Amino acid sequence: MIPSVLPTYNRAPLTFVKGEGSWLIEADGRRFLDMGAGIAVNALGHANPDLIAALSEQAGRLWHTSNLYQIPQQQALADKLVDATFADTVFFTNSGTESCELAIKMARKHFHAKGQPERIGIIAFEGSFHGRSHAAIAAAGSEKMTSGFGPRLPGFSHVAWGDHDGLYAAIDDTTAAILIEPVQGEGGIRPLPDQCLKGLRDLCDEKGILLILDEVQCGMGRTGRLFAHEWAGVEPDIMMVAKGIGGGFPLGAVLASESAASGMTAGTHGSTYGGNPLACAVGARVMDIIADPAFLEAVNEKAGRLRQGLEGLVASHPEVFEEVRGSGLMLGLKCKAPNADVVAAAYAELLITVPAADNVIRLLPPLNLSDEDLSEALARLDATATRVETSAGS
User: Fold this and answer.
1) Which residues 6+ apart lie within 8 Å of 1 measured at CB?
2) How many Cβ atoms from other residues are within 10 Å of residue 212's Cβ?
3) Could you give the CA distance from residue 153 to residue 156 in angstroms, rounded to a whole number?
4) What CATH topology corresponds to 16-34+293-393?
5) C-alpha separations of 338 from 11, 107, 341, 343 in Å
6) Do residues 14 and 25 touch, judged by C-beta distance below 8 A?
7) How is the chain split into domains, by residue range?
8) Radius of gyration over alpha carbons of the chain, in Å?
């Protein structure tokens, strides 16, 4: 008999009932150190008092009206995002998948409005992940994502990661945009080098096409800048945002330049819940905290300490770990042992990590984790590796 919850997840046998900062409390009382943050969602930890206050205050006033009316909280958050980024305009969604859908629609509509309706092609990259809708899985293109879901949505082509010649060859007169994650998350924590991102920007300018960045996982302070592309000193035309922007409350956004969004007029897109007062009240508080230069400086300091510790673990456990990858507090450990075994061993050490492709485990802690919790995470990872070694030798 099928379970009442559709069985599309291979869930760990853990039931968390409470969160406190960087910690999760299991139903049996065990305290787990959370180095996954809900897959980079709980950017300010669990039960953050500032976010609780923002949510509670708004919840006592107004939850939902729909986008048929002005929403002051939405306007306030949009203004903060426009002031802090390349963007001229923002559309609010509920998730990264919804942001992907709009980003693709916006790119195609941009060229349709310019009298070039043939420009519908989106070039994406091997190993990418952009969500689970039909457009998002077509953008990712992998057999694992698309198998069994009927004909793929047309208009997408794929280039191997790092294949510059292949990228040039993929562009033609029907190309509308290049879509890429500055740091691949699900794909195994693979950062795009700054010079490559600069090259993509130059290529898009040369060919007259749009650059869409998926910063759903790597954005909102995760790499030590508000958004990861800032390290390369470039600006996209369209950017997908979600996860950390809501600090745990479902919220996403598409940020765009005025030119890129020029085709999106009244009636071309919509959302019932997107940009609701609750989500935007929380998102505005998240922005106030994370966009503060002092906060981002602290993220970089913690990231340096964590990376140094992880490099030490690779040296100490060469049969378990191969290398450290990533940027800021979006780090990955490439494993020699099966990453599923490492994740399971970490559970036994009361530590949460997140698996990814290419035999990687992800470390995506709250951006405000304490120095003590950072040190404890390294100690538990050390114990995890020892546990894996012992198991392999038995």
Assistant:
1) none
2) 29
3) 8
4) Aspartate Aminotransferase, domain 1 (3.90.1150)
5) 18, 40, 5, 9
6) no
7) 16-34+293-393, 50-290
8) 21
| pLDDT at residue 392 in the model | 81
Percent of the chain with pLDDT over 70: 100
50-290: which CATH number, 3.40.640.10, 3.20.20.70, 3.30.565.10, 3.30.310.250? 3.40.640.10
3-state secondary structure the chain: CCCCCCCCCCCCCCCEEEEEECEEEECCCCEEEECCHHHHCCCCCECCHHHHHHHHHHHCCCCCCCCCCCCHHHHHHHHHHHHHCCCCEEEEECCHHHHHHHHHHHHHHHHHHCCCCCCCEEEEECCCCCCCCHHHHHHHCCHHHHCCCCCCCCCEEEECCCCHHHHHHHCCCCEEEEEECCEECCCCCEECCHHHHHHHHHHHHHHCCEEEEECCCCCCCCCCCCCHHHHHCCCCCEEEECHHHHCCCCCEEEEECCCCCCCCCCCCCCCCCCCCHHHHHHHHHHHHHHCCHHHHHHHHHHHHHHHHHHHHHHHHCCCCEEEEEEECCEEEEEECCCHHHHHHHHHHCCEECEEECCCEEEECCCCCCCHHHHHHHHHHHHHHHHHHHHHHHC
Give exposure, 166-183, as e/b (b: 16+ Cβ within 10 Å).
Answer: bbeebbeeebbbbbbbbb
Per the CB < 8 A criterion, the answer to whether 362 and 34 are in contact is no
First to last CA, the chain: 38
> Is residue 306 within 8 Å of residue 374, measured between CB atoms?
yes
User: Token pair of 17, please?
Assistant: 């009932």
- 70-95: pLDDT as tens digits: 999 999 999 999 999 999 999 999 99
Beta carbons of 351 and 32 less than 8 angstroms apart: yes
Comparing 16-34+293-393 with 50-290, is the CATH topology the same?
no
Q: 253-278 pLDDT, tens per residue? A: 999 999 999 999 999 999 999 999 99
Identify whether the C-beta of residue 232 lies closer than 8 Å to the C-beta of residue 216: no
The rounded distance, in Å, linking the Cα atoms of 359 and 320 is 11
Q: What is the pLDDT of residue 393?
A: 72
